[in-house]
Amino acid sequence: MFQSANYQRRGYLHEDFRLFHLRDMGVEEMEYHYHEFDKIVIFLSGRASYIIEGRSYFLEPWDVLLVSHHLIHRPVTDPDRPYERVVIYLDPGFLQASGTRGEDLATCFRLARERQFALMRPDGEERGRLAGLLEGLEQALEDRGFGGDLLARTCFLRLLVQLNRDMIRDRTHRDRTASQYDPKIAQALSYINDHLGEELTVDGLARQVYTSKYHFMRRFKELTGYPVHQYITQKRLLAAAELLRGGASAQAACGRCGFRDYSAFHRAFRRQFGVTPRELMP
């Protein structure tokens, strides 16, 4: 269960969740990437920051990052210091199926998106609880006795409940020293993701945030890792894939995600995902 672990998809998930406890040195610089599942990163030691959609988070031991599916991100680490973290991949469908009426286990991810802030910094008491729950989960995942899978699932649900409780109370997003970002690029990213079905141009986005076109293009690539047009296309394809999995037709997904030409959409989709839009439909 434990293993070492562009704008490209990284990692695959065939279970409800999967846990990696990693400690290494000399980690190669990772490219910007995304996942089609949600991810929890619990930073334990080292010197690292994490860039998520243009915002850099400066990590301290026991910080928790809540990275929703399709968010483009990458870690930045000091290769001369051991980098230890727990990474959990989890299926958004599992969160939805495991919640109860009025208590959605994806609340922590929803709050991170609403706050546009993915970092949670537990206090001393919360860190102690988190450490105990992680230890219990890791032990359960190694248990090969009767009911081992059920025990691991139960331990994981306990961890999720606690993370949601902590996130509801967390106020790290008010700490200006915990992260760094460019407000204009953040505004542009938010606008892009809210208007994928509409016409989006570099000129229009630059006007939207009151900056010159060339400064905007340079700063956007500097903070996100990719040119504006490539970012927009990527986000449109990811949104289309989600619509298709939800039962939308290929033509509807094409139009709703801002593609004006179906043949161009079809080519880009197949190039990105290795299947045609119709092959992804349930």
Q: What spatial form do the alpha-carbon principal axes imply?
A: globular
* Major sheet characteristics: 5 strands, antiparallel
Widest sheet: strand ordering: 2-9-4-7-10
| N- to C-terminal distance | 29 Å
Q: Report the C-alpha radius of gyration, rounded.
A: 20 Å
Q: Please estimate the helix content.
A: 40-55%
How confident overall, as mean pLDDT? 91
Total number of beta strands: 11
Given helix and strand content, the structural type is alpha+beta
Strand content: 15-25%
- Uncertain segments: 1-8
Element string (H = helix, E = strand): EEEEEEEEEHHEHHEHHHHHHH
Number of helices: 11
Core attributes:
282 residues; alpha+beta; five-stranded antiparallel sheet; four-stranded antiparallel sheet; 11 helices; 11 strands; 45% helix; disordered N terminus
General description of the model:
The protein is an alpha+beta fold. Helix content is 45%, strand content 18%. The strands form three sheets. Strands 2-9-4-7-10 form a five-stranded antiparallel β-sheet. Strands 8-5-6-11 form a four-stranded antiparallel β-sheet, with no helix packed on it. A two-stranded parallel ribbon has the order 1-3. A hairpin with a 2-residue loop joins strand 5 and strand 6. Helix 2 (107-115) packs parallel to helix 4, helix 3 (124-141) runs antiparallel to helix 4 and helix 8 runs antiparallel to helix 9.
